[in-house]
Amino acid sequence: MAEAGTGFLEQLKSCIVWSWTYLWTVWFFIVLFLVYILRVPLKINDNLSTVSMFLNTLTPKFYVALTGTSSLISGLILIFEWWYFRKYGTSFIEQVSVSHLRPLLGGVDNNSSNNSNSSNGDSDSNRQSVSECKVWRNPLNLFRGAEYNRYTWVTGREPLTYYDMNLSAQDHQTFFTCDSDHLRPADAIMQKAWRERNPQARISAAHEALEINEIRSRVEVPLIASSTIWEIKLLPKCATAYILLAEEEATTIAEAEKLFKQALKAGDGCYRRSQQLQHHGSQYEAQHRRDTNVLVYIKRRLAMCARRLGRTREAVKMMRDLMKEFPLLSMFNIHENLLEALLELQAYADVQAVLAKYDDISLPKSATICYTAALLKARAVSDKFSPEAASRRGLSTAEMNAVEAIHRAVEFNPHVPKYLLEMKSLILPPEHILKRGDSEAIAYAFFHLAHWKRVEGALNLLHCTWEGTFRMIPYPLEKGHLFYPYPICTETADRELLPSFHEVSVYPKKELPFFILFTAGLCSFTAMLALLTHQFPELMGVFAKAMIDIFCSAELRDWNCQSIFMRVEDELEIPPAPQSQHFQN
Hints:
The protein is mostly helical. It is built from 28 helices and four strands.
């Protein structure tokens, strides 16, 4: 019985919600009809007369205060709405209306939407996972001590955000620590050092870990029965301590390279020892995984040091050897470092070979892969490309391939062309990037702008063709053309990754919400009324009373007009017209 009553109440509620959703005009006319029927019991005419008499007694100062207060309040609302929109990309009033008022007026229930989405199968789940914004480690990230800190010393600005550095700390704890670190004093110290927020505390902890390893332990070895010889054995040095010092304490790339070479010596020994013991248990396996990550990181950073110091061929050889030795470790994206170094050597055939391996439909894309492929195809036609000639004779096959490659790259990341064409100023790239976001565009353009400039006519071809991409992408972005729809969460993540002094590039451009335009118009209109009322109080008072009379009922219109006319006569001191004897009697 209780279930039947509950079902009846739910059905009644759904009927009322449906009627408010689709029959609101009928409800509106019903309310108007009830007001008309009950006009006599409610004494609507008398109330209107009282209100009209009260408004007629108001002075112009009241209207000045009223319009001024309205302008001030609407201005404050406008400022708050604009700040909220710039920070979060949506309207506060609209968000509150959607989240609180829509359920009351019959909005879509979340449970029903979840059920409908679950019934769509794997396609919806795949689409949702693809659109999820994932932050990636920047494969070309700079050195904190030798590059980021030097920028801070010169400009006084912080190039890295707290969110970005926090992600780096999490990466270091994932790659450079394991569960057995508490068994080794130096590794236990470094495990705490990676969690430190203060850079000086981290550096001090790294020096402490190295000092512990300088302690010599004596091992007793009985060589002769009557005597004992003490063998001096050095404990293995802590490779992660050298990594931290090379990243944060070294002020030049040369100093960082020296520290990384010491880290390589220590890390290689730890890797070989753990490789022999990895099958003895899960603890040894985790330690070997940690040592592998440390060794790969050290060799990759050594290759990047060689690239920074101008030894590009040596850097290419180190990267190739590293990719051959550890082919399964794709999380570091070493191929992107290799592509940049090969472009510096102008070894375009080798670049094409790398792209043929990694520019595959089953592998995740990046701006480096897409724009490097576009650069190679543009290189074949850019030196002779002319927009005027192309408009007369049409595009050749090679030019069409180059334009399609540029359109493909722009669709993947539409923020890159503005940096390559120097329409926006570059900043130092962050340590983490967001695929298809502004942070990835900065990281790509920072290192690859010189390669585009080196190819004659490549930037000219990009300038003439990149905007044509947006005519091919459906709007609104319900689906993509060559890739998945552009995610809507890139702006929020990029604002967390990029420093506050950088203007984040947003795609697609968001239109101003209705409530911002409404509050701007309301603020301007009330401010204009306040100014006019202050300058011309008599005329604006007459105008206000006239507007009030327009909305009054027909029975009160004559009386209101007469009172307004008498008020005007009193204020303007108009002499009364001569009256006839018949009218006086």
